[in-house]
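Researcher: Here's the sequence for the chain we discussed earlier.
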Amino acid sequence: MIAKKMIVFSLIMLLAVYPASAGEVTLNRWALNVIIHDNGTVEEIIQTEIENGGSSPLDGFSFVVPSAKMTEPEISTFSPNGKEVQLQAVTGGTKVTINFNSKLETGKKWDGRIDFNAENWAVKEGQDYSITIPVEAPQAIISGKDTRMSIPAEPEIRSQVFLPKSVDPTSVEPSIDAATKKTAYKKLLQYNKFTGADTGADLIVLTWFKLNIGDVMNIKASYSDELNRIVEANGKFKTLSDRIKAEKAKGTDVSVAEAHLSNAKDYNNQALDEFWEKKDATASLDAANNEMSQAEKSLLEPVKTATGQASKTPESQKTPASGALFIIGILLFITLLKRKK
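Model: Thanks. This is the structure I predict for it:
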């Protein structure tokens, strides 16, 4: 009898602490986009979708950022529910609480983008970087109390980590998917444009298309001279490509420059492949830069139109003997006048 009373008492206490069951509020999407800047500061953009499938309205939600110093998040959403943001220092970082001005009723979804900057999250020591990113579900807030969210069978839990310019990862976890035993992430070098010192640069991006709540991403990375040469070559290629397009739009024959630029692109790609394979990419980079120099040189040669004719300035289009003919004409006119007299 006493045991039954204890069980009932425990259930009542659980309901008091968690007024909604885990199955009522669902986390459909939790996508973490982490940008590590050159100076070691971190920008995180979280994309989320939360669904209230229970009987109680949702007041808001909260999550913890592993940084003691962060900016107030900027929130973008099409949801009609307004929001108020509160920051609170807690063990291990800062608790971010997003309260809705009007509660999210049963059967409704809230989706949005949460953007903030954080210091002392990534560690920068000289030219080395490291960061730990926990993948934790936010807490639902119902009747003023934190409540665990349920995770559906196929949630969208993913992440992208953008490393600083010319920085290459040396250690990445999780690296192997436990279910498939395959590589858990993709590594690409792609052009990205962010605010800050590394605006408009080719950055290495680590992408996890599928993560699990409870995973922890650990990344270590270092500056690479060879990667920097590849990034600089790619930047020169983009600038030269824009210049050639501009000349072509004017009607200039840029076929020679385009041929050299195409060769440079092939050498750039070859250099990147060699870099991924930990091979020496010096020869490929030298060849790429030589091709781009040849392309620049061809643009400085006498300008030709797309029809193959050298373009002329208005002054050069004048007939060379036009001045002499004018003088001869005057002399003939004077001679005719004298004869009439």
